[in-house]
């Protein structure tokens, strides 16, 4: 799957996947996050605006991403989920763990503030 | 004669007789329950022998247990669902075939692997080797199938047996559907062709097919077959949308499993965070109350800050803030407190570091979350008190709530891990999430049953323990999302595994009468018989009709004869769930055992001996004129004899020598198909 990558404030990485985040594409999402972590980039925002469909494999890729960045002392946030993604987040209650932020800026903001305070 | 009369009940031409058979069964169920109530009400109201109250009540309790058992059996059979032909298969489905193994012989796996490759529908075959053996890996390479072992994440973490093996593989594969096969289950080429069609219904989460064994010798001495389970009982459960998942020969939808994994992750994180925060709050309160730590105003202030941080985090969690925010804020606050402290107290740091190292290592392998505050409290007291030490303790706690599920190998564990029978627990949760299930009654794989008493007993003990574990940890009456019928179906199976206690009473009952002349009922009058006999007859009739054409006798024998095993399963599962004791085993057989195994059936031998002695004494008492109760004595002799006939199964098994016949059977083509399953009477 196609995943755009940009750098926001304070080196927070924003990933923007296109299309379906499902059992076929979840592995490539997971690999991309792993590459970033290997690169020392552990503050990641995933912009879900262009994700038309997500299944539980997509959700589990988000969770394993969260696990890896947290172990590296960072965080992973999600922003701008569409209707279907919002529904699956609700039905699995994953939104009680991973808060869907309304905008990429908002998600980045918390992370970049944290960067200046948190110990490496 | 009877066979002729009943022949029309057998679904020879399914379309014609299926409905009729079900109607007949329903009439029998209704009548059976009616007579059951009639009998039991009379027993409660008029028949208790008050002079031997404990004995009388024990028997009444056993009879009530049995009545509930037959009630649940009736509910199961009420919706008997014979599906017939499956829908045509999904055309473009991607399927992964998982063959699980753990130190079984390579030749055995090789046969399964070859058959799996030969499955006619497009698929990808994976060998999931939990034994991590080079020979197995080499075989997989030679056969050109994918080979999966545990990733390094599983080192030093709970392995969760087969559930862990499957969860590990699910993270490394991507097929839409997964066919699970035990090491010995050789699939037939059309197994996917016949099962994938059910997934046209997008709500179907899994399809289970029977588990059948080709190596069971004539007479089935170990009672491995459970034709009633892989037949009417599964079909009845299917009717209630509660078909059981039995770990092998089943096709599952990946989406259903992963959804279960995600939901499980969320639940674990919620429970974990709440637990850790409450515990942190307790710890700081305790330290504050302890004068040594709070006399210094600076320490006191810091402890106050820490306590407030924990309380605020818990409050914001309860307000519904996401765990990500709660943990993130909490961690930053703790960091802030620690930093402030470090700035103030540079000299102290060096001295503190040693203590910190010890304390954190104390906290590394905690047995239970609930004990963390105790351990931390004592650790802080044992070592020289240091504020930095306290902060590090908190940091350890913070790590425990880092949403990474660090105590497990993977954050997502799709297969339930609360029980050694992962399949039942998984299916129940899938049903709870609203997934539908299918039991497809067609033999699509052939396996090998245990060939000696020891392994056979071990396998049953494990199933029984697992079922009781699920009952205690995830009671089907309270699991959210299940429908009433589904609750009853799970309860029915669990209820069946409690039979050991009732069996003891049924064995001791006639003994007490024959030896001491004490009777649990107030009279053995005709009144008693007019209440009991119709109920007994209907029970038998229902059972006969339901099990028509199947060999159910061995199963019924073992239901009673394995009473020590059922009791052991119950007590060990209770000890495991509530007191964290290991489950324990019959023994651990590595190779086939043979010979006479009298030690394995000690309690049964004692029961048989006592029954024989009781019969002799009872008859002597009658002949010598000690008693003149001819009728009651004969009834109790009959009762004891029936017990003996049932118990004799263990003698057949203990004295069974796997001779030429068995060897031939395991080499040749399957002569006769036999089935195994959960407990026969269910």
In short:
Chain A is an alpha/beta fold and 120 residues long.
How would you describe this structure to a colleague?
The complex is a heterodimer of chains A (120) and B (682). Chain A has one domain (2-118): Transcription Regulator spoIIAA, CATH 3.30.750. Chain A is 43% helix and 24% strand. Chain A has four helices and seven strands. In chain A, the strands form two sheets. A five-stranded mixed sheet of chain A has the order 1-2-4-6-7. In chain A, a hairpin with a 5-residue loop joins strand 1 and strand 2 (13-17). Chain A is globular and about 30 Å long. The N and C termini of chain A lie far apart (32 Å). Chain B has helices at residues 2-7, 14-46, 53-78, 106-117, 134-142, 161-170, 229-239, 254-289, 291-294, 297-318, 323-344, 346-364, 372-382, 387-400, 422-432, 453-473, 484-496, 499-516, 526-546, 553-561, 563-579, 602-623, 630-654, 660-667, and strands at residues 95-101, 124-129, 146-148, 177-182, 186-187, 204-208, 212-213, 250-253, 436-439, 445-447, 674-675. In chain B, helix 5 links the parallel strand 2 and strand 3 (146-148). In chain B, helix 8 (254-289) runs antiparallel to helix 14 (387-400), helix 18 packs across helix 23 (630-654) and helix 20 crosses helix 23 (630-654). The longest helix of chain B is centred in the middle third of the chain and has 36 residues, at 254-289. Chain B is globular and about 100 Å long. The two termini of chain B are 29 Å apart. The interface between A and B is medium-sized, with 31 and 36 residues.
């Amino acid at each position: 799957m196609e995943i755009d990558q940009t750098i926001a404030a304070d080196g927070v990485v924003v990933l923007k996947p296109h299309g379906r985040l499902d059992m076929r594409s979840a592995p490539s999402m997971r690999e991309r996050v792993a590459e970033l972590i290997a690169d020392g980039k552990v503050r990641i925002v995933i912009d879900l605006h262009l994700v038309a469909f997500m299944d539980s494999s997509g959700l589990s890729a988000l969770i394993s991403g969260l696990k890896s960045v947290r172990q590296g002392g960072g965080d992973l946030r999600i922003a701008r989920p569409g209707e279907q993604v919002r529904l699956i987040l609700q039905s699995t209650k994953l939104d009680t763990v991973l808060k869907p932020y309304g905008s990429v800026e908002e998600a980045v903001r918390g992370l970049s503030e944290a960067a200046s305070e948190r110990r490496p | 004669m009877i066979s002729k009369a009943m022949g029309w009940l057998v679904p020879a031409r399914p379309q014609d007789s299926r409905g009729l058979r079900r109607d007949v069964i329903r009439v029998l169920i209704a009548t059976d329950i009616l007579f059951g109530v009639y009998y039991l009400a009379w027993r409660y109201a008029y028949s208790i022998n008050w002079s031997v109250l404990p004995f009388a009540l024990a028997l009444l309790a056993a009879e009530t247990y049995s009545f509930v058992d037959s009630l649940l059996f009736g509910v199961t059979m009420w919706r008997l669902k014979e599906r017939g032909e499956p829908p045509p298969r999904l055309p473009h489905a991607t399927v992964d075939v998982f063959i699980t193994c753990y130190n079984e012989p390579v030749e055995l796996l090789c046969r399964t692997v070859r058959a799996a490759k030969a499955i006619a529908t497009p698929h990808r075959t994976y060998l999931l080797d939990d034994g991590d053996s080079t020979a197995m890996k080499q075989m997989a390479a030679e056969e050109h199938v994918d080979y999966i072992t545990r990733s390094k994440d599983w080192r030093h973490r709970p392995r969760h047996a087969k559930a862990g093996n499957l969860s590990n593989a699910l993270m490394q594969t991507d097929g839409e559907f997964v066919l699970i096969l035990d090491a010995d289950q050789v699939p037939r080429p059309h197994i996917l062709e016949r099962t994938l069609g059910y997934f046209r219904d997008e709500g179907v989460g899994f399809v289970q097919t029977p588990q059948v064994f080709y190596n069971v010798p004539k007479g089935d001495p170990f009672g491995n077959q459970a034709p009633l389970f892989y037949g009417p009982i599964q079909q009845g459960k299917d009717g209630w949308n509660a078909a059981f998942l039995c770990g092998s020969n089943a096709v599952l939808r990946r989406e259903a499993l992963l959804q279960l994994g995600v939901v499980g992750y969320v639940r674990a994180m919620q429970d974990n965070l709440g637990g850790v925060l409450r515990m942190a709050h307790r710890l700081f309160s305790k330290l504050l109350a302890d004068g040594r730590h709070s006399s210094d105003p600076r320490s006191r202030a810091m402890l106050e800050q820490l306590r407030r941080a924990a309380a605020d985090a818990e409050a914001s969690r309860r307000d519904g803030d996401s765990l990500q925010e709660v943990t993130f804020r909490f961690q930053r606050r703790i960091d802030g407190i620690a930093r402030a402290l470090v700035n103030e107290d540079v000299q102290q740091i060096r001295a503190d570091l040693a203590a910190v190292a010890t304390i954190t290592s104390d906290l590394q392998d905690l047995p239970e979350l609930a004990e963390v505050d105790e351990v931390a409290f004592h650790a802080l007291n044992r070592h020289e008190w240091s504020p930095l030490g306290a902060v590090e303790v908190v940091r350890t706690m913070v790590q425990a709530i880092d949403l990474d599920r660090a105590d497990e190998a993977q954050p997502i564990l799709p297969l339930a891990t609360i029980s050694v029978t992962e399949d039942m627990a998984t299916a129940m949760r899938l049903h709870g999430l609203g997934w539908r299930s299918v039991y497809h009654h067609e033999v699509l794989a052939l396996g090998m049953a245990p060939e000696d008493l020891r392994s056979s007993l071990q396998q049953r003990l494990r199933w029984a323990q697992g079922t009781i574990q699920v009952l205690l940890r995830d009671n089907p009456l309270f699991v959210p999302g299940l429908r009433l019928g589904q609750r009853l179906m799970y309860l029915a199976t669990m209820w069946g595994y409690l039979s050991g206690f009732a069996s003891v009473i049924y064995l001791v009952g006639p003994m007490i009468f024959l030896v001491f002349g004490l009777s649990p009922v107030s009279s053995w009058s005709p009144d008693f018989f007019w209440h009991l006999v119709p109920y007994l007859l209907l029970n038998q009739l229902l059972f006969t009709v339901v099990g028509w054409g199947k060999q159910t006798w061995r199963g019924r024998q073992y239901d009673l004869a394995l009473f020590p095993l059922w009791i052991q399963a119950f007590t060990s599962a209770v000890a495991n769930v509530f007191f964290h004791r290991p489950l324990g085993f019959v023994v651990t057989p590595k190779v086939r055992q043979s010979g006479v195994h009298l030690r394995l059936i000690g309690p049964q031998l004692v029961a048989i001996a006592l029954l024989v002695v009781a019969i002799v004494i009872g008859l002597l008492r009658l002949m010598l004129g000690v008693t003149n109760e001819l009728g009651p004595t004969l009834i109790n002799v009959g009762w004891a004899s029936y017990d003996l006939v049932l118990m004799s199964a263990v003698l057949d098994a203990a004295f069974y020598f796997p001779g030429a016949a068995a060897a031939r059977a395991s080499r040749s083509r399957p002569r006769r198909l036999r089935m195994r399953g959960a407990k026969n009477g269910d």
